[in-house]
Amino acid sequence: MFLVNRVAILAVVLFAVVVIGFAITRSTGTPLYASLGVAVSEEIIQQRAEEMGLNDPIVVQFWTYFTALARGDLGSSRISYIPVAEDIALKLPATAEMVFFTLVFSFVWAIPLGVRAGLRPEGKLAKLGEGMAQFGVSVPAFWLGLLFVFLLYFLPQRIPEPLGPLPSLFPPPLGRLGGATPPDMVTGFYTVDALLAGDIRLAWQSLWHLILPALTLSLTSGPPLFRVTRSAVSEALSSPFVEAAYSYGLGRRTVLIRDVLRNASPPVLNLAAMTFGYLIGGGVLVEVVFSWPGIGSYAVWAMNNSDYDAVLGVVIVAAVIYVILYFIVDLIQFAMDPRLRD
Description:
The protein contains 15 helices and no strands. The chain has helices at residues 2-26, 32-36, 42-51, 58-70, 84-119, 124-138, 141-157, 190-196, 200-237, 240-247, 252-282, 284-289, 295-304, 308-336, 338-341. Helix 5 crosses helix 9, helix 9 packs across helix 11 and helix 11 (252-282) runs antiparallel to helix 14.
């Protein structure tokens, strides 16, 4: 019954996203002036609007869009006339790769420091983690990205003689490969595809371009992971089953791994999935800063050109990914927590 309720709730959420997104994009007026140009006569504008069904009542427009969406049709771009689904399929791997490495970096610093802070709240590592968390929630991600680009790319080249100029520590913010020829697409992750092609140099180049945007997002999206991990570990340590485990003579390491970390993991996994889903559509400005050709940059381009089918397509895809990840986490929690099965 738990899973049935979850599926029903998530289906309602997706439908609400479609309805609200459709209403917002249609409330901004006709996009035909952006796609056809202001020099086009009003007669041609009206003719094109009639062909596209833009003169129909809003309910009729929504039903037409929704029935097409049920077939997997997200419409076509009003600017490029390319199907939105094809555009997103080309852009999504770039965003997914960046978000994957963002989570890797976040796990590297946030989880260990969170566990340590939960075990020793007054320790130096706990204070370091809290300081990083305070910094991460205090600065916008795009500002931090610009700071990294300035300090690690532009500044070394502008150090005067006799010390400089020095080579940049990182490549220019010019997308995934900085103009190099990408590998044949297999997974869409350039690091993986380059390794599959046996091109170690290209894989390293792809990874080198990934570090700054992923590091930027990890420092601003990792603080919640740190705090939830700290709170979950601290709560697990004070629970009766941990005290019972110690009373049975179990060692600290055994209790930590078998009881504390296991019981602290569900909220951390839940937040990690939500963070991944959020970053799919939430790293827009970071993608713009680093010229990253993902769906965030695509959404910005679509909004600048009043291409509302493309904007709505990005919103729906991001929502679907978020819902799928959330459901996977529910399945994991269902398997780990016998109370949910009861």
